[in-house]
Amino acid sequence: MLIDLQTTQSRNLIAELQSLGLRLADPGSGAPSRRGGAGPSDHKAVTVDGKTIMVPVHTGSAARSPFLARAAGDDGFAVLEREGRAVARIAFPPVPRYYALQTLDGIPYWKLATLHGRDVLATTVLQECIRYTNRRTRCQFCAIGESLAAGRTVARKTPEQLAEVARAAVRLDGVKHAVLTTGTPNVTDRGAAVLCESAAAIKRVVDLPIQGQCEPPDDFAWFERLHASGVDTLGMHLEAVEEDVRARAMPGKAKVPVSYYLEAFAAAVRVFGRGQVSTYIIAGLGDSAESILAMSRTLIELGVYPFVVPLVPIGGTPLEHATPPDSAFMRALLGELGGMLREARLTSAESKAGCGRCGACSSLSVFETA
Ligand code: SF4
Asked: Which pLDDT score, from 0 to 100, does residue 6 have?
């Protein structure tokens, strides 16, 4: 059995798992998988060679994956097979202890915020989005309404609830940073206001680095307000970079053009600092590798971390039957991007909080080291 992976083997295995997905002999192993919700989903945290990554387990392609995780043994490790042959030992992060708690009014903490990766507390403050309610404007890859409809979360998490959960997650599970994302509630602050009140409430009770994620607000003064409220890093997610791909994949959100994002990035970096502003770019929506790399170069020059992730076709979304990008495409793309980030000294290790620091949804960080 292959147990000690070399760096290249480890990178390739992580990229393949994220592209092809994983079948589980025991779906109950470790922390519960995530279905629906904002951002990447239908995946499960898996630790490979010491790195915790999110691997699709509920998608159509995962059901056909050559990878199978055998049930974990008493030591917490499971054998990973590829087409019936053992290739590595993996582990599943355990169910966090704070999941057993609930608020005074009876809401389980796990419905308010979930553990992402190994040590990130993540929540969607507003589980509703003006773009999502209309089929003609919703992002084709997003499942923000699915977990709400299934009763796995609540529509609006109050600042007090989030502070309560954050304090427990730090105390009981040692979470190291938090991600506050939100559906877009309006076309003015575009979510910045709810992030401010949520971050401020958390920071009043616990010293936890926080990333806020929203669309670029109409007024860049919001960046100062976010920072003053306790948001340490900011994510504004392009998702796709070519305007026609954006118009197709995210018809509502694409009304805010790339040029406006670039202005917002420059203004945000002045407030949060170089490497503390990031963006998601989802490979597999139709952008070419060249476009993604050209945009990444522009972003890096601005001091923005381009977090490139493979598309996870989430069940219940218009893209559920889409094919994720293959691992050779991702390896070539992330290999090139990792080198650019290394050269610019703008790596995930510099980020104080959020998706860049967590890195579980992409193998990018493993390509940043030489
Ligand atoms: S990279 Fe971001 S979305 Fe993905 S698991 Fe980590 S915190 Fe969650």
From this structure: 59
- 320: helix, coil or strand? coil
The answer to whether 92 and 72 are in contact (CB under 8 A) is yes
Measured from the CB, is residue 360 less than 6 Å from ligand 1? yes
The distance from CA 265 to its chain's CA centroid, rounded to whole angstroms, is: 19
Instruction: Supply the residue whose CA is at minimum distance from atom 2 of ligand 1.
Output: 355
- Output DSSP code: residue 110: G
Q: Give the residue, out of 54, 280, 366, with the most ligand 1 atoms within 8 A of its beta carbon, to mutate for a pocket test.
A: 54
Residue 222: predicted pLDDT: 98
* Cβ of residue 116 lying under 6 Å from some atom of ligand 1: yes
**Residue 111 has which token pair?**
């419905």
Q: Please tell me the predicted confidence (pLDDT) of residue 370.
A: 72
- Mean pLDDT per block of 10 residues along the chain (370 residues) reads 62 90 87 66 86 89 92 87 94 93 94 94 94 89 86 94 98 98 95 98 98 98 98 98 96 96 98 98 96 98 97 87 91 96 95 95 88
| The pLDDT of residue 284 | 95
Q: Which amino acid is at 146?
A: E
Please answer whether residues 58 and 317 qualify as being in contact, where contact means their C-beta atoms are separated by less than 8 angstroms: no
Probe ligand 1: pick from 358, 363, 364, max atoms within 8 Å of CB?
Answer: 358
Q: Nearest C-alpha to atom 1 of ligand 1 is from which residue?
A: 355
Question: 186 burial class (0-12, 13-18, 19+ CB within 10 angstroms)?
Answer: exposed
Strand order in the sheet with 120-124: 114-116, 120-124, 177-181, 210-213, 233-235, 277-283, 304-310
pLDDT of residue 1: 44
